[in-house]
Amino acid sequence: MTKHAFEKIKAGLEDAIAFAQGDQDRGALHVPETIDVRSIRKGLGLSQEQFSAQYGFGLARLRDWEQGRSSPDSAARAYLIVIQREREAVDRALHAA
């Protein structure tokens, strides 16, 4: 094992221990409780139909999120953040041959 690999493992374990001891900011991913789905979609310049088809969301569900009738769960919120911040990576992953 290289020194670099050992240091990465050590840092990960230290973060896990800190998190287990109550440090909610260290080593934890933060997924916001709410997310503005409409602004993400519009920021990408996509219609509801295009966005739902491109990223695998049901059109009715997307409309419900945007109109406040329901909210995305934490996994969907995390996915939406990745779409917003790293669209090209998501597109590459979803359209890989």
Give a verbal description of the structure.
It is a single chain. By secondary structure, this protein is mainly α. The protein has a domain at 37-94: 434 Repressor (Amino-terminal Domain) (Orthogonal Bundle). 63% of the residues lie in helices and 0% in strands. It has 6 helices and no strands. The chain has helices at 3-20, 37-43, 48-55, 59-66, 74-85, 87-94. The mean pLDDT is 87.
Topology (SSEs and partners):
Layout (H helix, E strand, L loop, with lengths): L2 H18 L16 H7 L4 H8 L3 H8 L7 H12 L1 H8 L3
- What profile does the largest beta sheet have? none
Question: Could you give the count of β-strands?
Answer: 0
| Alpha-carbon distance between the two ends | 33 Å
Note the overall shape: elongated
- SSE order, as H and E? HHHHHH
The CATH class assignment of the domain at 37-94 is: Mainly Alpha
What's the mean pLDDT score?
87
Q: Bin the strand percentage.
A: under 5%
* Low-pLDDT segments: none
Q: How much helix, percentage-wise, in residues?
A: 55-70%
User: Structural class of the secondary structure composition?
Assistant: mainly alpha
CATH-defined fold name of the domain at 37-94: 434 Repressor (Amino-terminal Domain)
At CATH's second level, what is the architecture of the domain at 37-94? Answer: Orthogonal Bundle
The radius of gyration computed from the alpha-carbon positions, rounded to a whole number of angstroms, is 18 Å
CATH superfamily of the domain at 37-94: lambda repressor-like DNA-binding domains
Protein name: Transcriptional regulator
Pfam family, one: HTH_3
GO molecular function, one term: DNA binding
Domain HTH cro/C1-type: 37-73
